[in-house]
Design goal:
- The structure holds 2 protein chains of 2 kinds.
- Chain A is an all-alpha fold.
- Chain A has one domain.
- Chain A has 8 helices and no strands.
- In chain A, helix 4 runs parallel beside helix 7.
- By secondary structure, chain B is mainly alpha-helical.
- Chain B contains 7 helices and no strands.
- Helices cover 61% and strands 0% of the residues of chain B.
- Chain B has one domain.
- Classes of the chains: A mainly alpha, B mainly alpha.
Chain lengths: 134, 82
């Protein structure tokens, strides 16, 4: 994310300040995580990176994640800047939750019933189904 | 474990390249507990918090553990892999 925030379109905006907030970052991380579980076009990514544990971040995976950030960072920045009256007031947790839930819907991410880790709808369940020939 | 300061001593447990604090963060994120993911010291505040994150799902879903760890390294960038 830091790399993306340093691009010309973001560095001179409010984005670096907004995304310095841990809670904002983790909202975006969650969207990325769920998107990587639910987007059908990411099947090969899920397959490739659920086997070996990487010592450092994979450049390919970083590129994929940055592609996702391009879809959410500007939207989040614009919403946050407007809602906080150009960063002059703090935004409540509730407002932030609502904003990111809406963003998830816009992105086609299901935060309640879709595929997600550490549940029967995660990668291990899919792997077992494949092994069983389902 | 009393707090996340102690967790730091379990760095890259058994050569897995996963720090205990980072694992707690990704599991909290996966369980949509964003407050704890953003402030992982909360996970290690007491046994109850710890056990809500480090439950049996971690060993039950090993592929999820690997994938979310790899993804988190890519998401968070250098701040988490240095």
């Amino acid at each position: 994310m830091n790399t993306y925030l340093e691009t010309p379109s973001q560095i001179n905006s409010t984005a670096p300040v907004i995304f310095k907030k841990a809670i904002v970052r983790h909202h975006v991380y969650r969207l990325a995580l769920f998107d990587f579980y639910q987007d059908e076009s990411r099947e090969s990514i899920r397959e490739e990176f659920s086997g070996p544990l990487m010592k450092i971040a994979s450049p390919r995976l970083v590129d994929e994640v940055e592609g996702f950030y391009q879809r959410v960072v500007t939207k989040t920045r614009n919403w946050y800047t407007s809602e906080s009256k150009n960063l002059s007031i703090e935004i409540s947790k509730k407002k932030m939750d609502v904003c990111f839930e809406k963003l998830a819907m816009d992105l086609g991410i299901d935060l309640t019933e879709g595929a997600r880790p550490f549940t029967p709808f995660g990668l291990d369940a899919g792997a077992k189904a494949k092994k069983a020939g389902k | 474990m009393k707090n996340s300061e102690n967790a730091k001593h379990y760095w890259a447990t058994n050569g897995t390249y996963i720090k205990v604090v980072d694992l707690g963060q990704v599991v909290a994120l996966s369980k949509q507990n964003l407050q704890w993911a953003a402030k992982p010291s909360e996970i290690f505040l007491n046994k109850e918090n710890h056990d809500r994150i480090f439950d049996r799902s971690i060993t039950r879903y090993p592929r999820d553990t690997v994938f979310v760890s790899n993804l988190f390294k890519a998401e968070a960038g250098v701040e988490h892999i240095s």
